[in-house]
Amino acid sequence: VKVEHDKKAKKRKHEYEEDEDDEVLLSVLVWEEERYTDGSKWRFLEHKGPVFAPPYEPMPNKVRFYYDGKIMKLSAAAEEVATFFAKMLDHEYSTKDVFRKNFFKDWRKEMTSEEKAIITDLNKCNFSEMNDYFKAQSEARKQMSKEEKKKIKEENERLLQEYGFCIMDNHKERIGNFRTEPPGLFRGRGDHPKMGMLKRRIRPEDIIINCSKDSKQPKPPPGSKWKEVRHDNKVTWLASWTENIQGSIKYIMLNPSSRIKGEKDWQKYETARCLKKCVDRIRTQYRDDWKSKEMRIRQRAVALYFIDKLALRAGNEKEEGETADTVGCCSLRVEHIKLHPKINDQEFVVELDFLGKDSIRYYNKMPVEKRVFKNLQLFLENKQPEDDLFDRLNTSILNKHLQELMDGLTAKVFRTYNASITLQQQLKELTCPDDSIPAKILSYNRANRAVAILCNHQRAPPKTFEKSMQNLQTKIDEKEKQLSTARKQLKAAKADHKASHDEKSKKTVEVKRKAVQRIEEQLMKLQVQATDREENKQIALGTSKLNYLDPRISVAWCKKYGIPIEKIYNKTQREKFAWAIDMAEKDYEF
DNA sequence: AGACAGACTTGCTTTCACTATA
DNA sequence: TATAGTGAAAGCAAGTCTGTCT
């Protein structure tokens, strides 16, 4: 694959050489010429460092804070943190006990000793004037004149041009996130024990800069210093800092359109295609292992079966009390699984119910093979609800085993493989060559949806869902009325023509016929749209499209059926998948 | 083997900005 | 010309997995 692609890339490179504007495209086409074998990620790296959050602007004097009904002027530090809470007054978070408790504790740390002595109860704090002020501000922002908006836009564009790009090796690349995260209150997902804690402001002194020795080093803002400047070309990040909630490191990295991200993405799908070649063998083996006399092997084999069949995540252990209580395959507990030897005419039914990544609920009830069922019964023996289902297994053991089965194989490769193979197979099954383009796109979305369901990619139904559905229905009703009017007119025109047989009436018939046809098409399009949207109410297609589906499958499908690629991928997605758009022909097979 | 740090991918929600419409 | 509705983009939290240290 590589050799063939290299040839093609060279050819295209030549074609594009004169076109200097097309730098981005060019850089995509020549990736393959710059791969390193020693684990280094680049030779040259130059950038301007991150953009920092703007400093705190104190509240105008007229905006007051009240404690226990009395006006109280806060110190700048305490006031800033108070505004973080004030901004969230309308959010459900601000009513949660844990959130309030964490916030109050961290807020008090920012107070002067006088403030600390007075402010002892969050319930006696009144932030409403601050809240009103921010609402007014956001209203004012919306009301800004065209010129003011334009000015802001230009300033943003200037910042993007200056800080949003870097030079990596021979190419100018877009940076993904070139700003540090602003201070605020931490919003964990699900039942997070740290929600409401203060996320502190990031200063230049917190930042580690990574760039090449021979590059022009970024300058810290006047009067400040970087924490460190290093030159590590074994990593891809440009800058990093340690965040104070979990103590984890945050990075500034390149945009998905960059060579370094694109190559990695491509590699990911190649690994998944590798799995395709040996998945039969692996399946045979884990089925065999269900009979092993060793408990650890049986557990490993059943877990792998779940990962393969149900597309579960690996499930690393997490530190208790530090994050929301969520699990994946290896960390499933007894309380997450129910076994039904017989239910509704089905035998050996397993019911899984747990909170996965981002505290999204996974619920599934499915029949499994008898051997799996019997094994699960065995694993559950003499255990408490909070005990691990797979007590002899963890992700490290599992991945070590997978590594032995195939080079580069880890648990998540199964998700990539099953997602991509499902898309390919569903597209084959659902696409009718004679369908209109909108109908074909509906088929595509349905194939995409099948994958999203497999991977349990959900979303909260949009707040405007019901209304937007109604709007669409209104449009459909109107279109139907239009159609019936147009049909009547066509009928009348036909009758007229039958009576007179003249040229003019013949033309009218043609015109009316065309009109009916056009309206029919428009109606169909609207109906397809309504179906699509309804089926998508709680399902998020984005994640699978961006992270799990080999883009070459979609590109090939578009080429095969003459669908413009813009209908499937928007501008950003086309940039991210430029490598695939360039590479895949209509006969590409995952 | 297990703990932990680090790097990178994945995932949902919120905000932004554009476009169609009144 | 303002507004509403929408898709795109931004934001950042939360996973996976590797490597190192003990």
TrEMBL record:
Compartment list: Nucleus
InterPro entries, per the entry: DNA_brk_join_enz, DNA_topo_DNA_db_N_dom1, DNA_topo_DNA_db_N_dom2, TopoI, TopoI_C_dom, TopoI_cat_a-hlx-sub_euk, TopoI_cat_a/b-sub_euk, TopoI_cat_euk
Pfam families (UniProt xref): Topo_C_assoc (PF14370), Topoisom_I (PF01028), Topoisom_I_N (PF02919)
Enzyme nomenclature, EC number: 5.6.2.1
Annotated region (Disordered), positions in chain: 1-21
GO biological process: chromosome segregation; DNA replication; DNA topological change; rhythmic process
One cellular-component annotation, GO: chromosome
CDD domains according to UniProt: Topo_IB_C, Topoisomer_IB_N_htopoI_like
Keyword Nucleus appears in the UniProt entry: yes
Catalytic activity: ATP-independent breakage of single-stranded DNA, followed by passage and rejoining
Name of the protein this chain belongs to: DNA topoisomerase I
Species assigned in the record: Nothobranchius furzeri
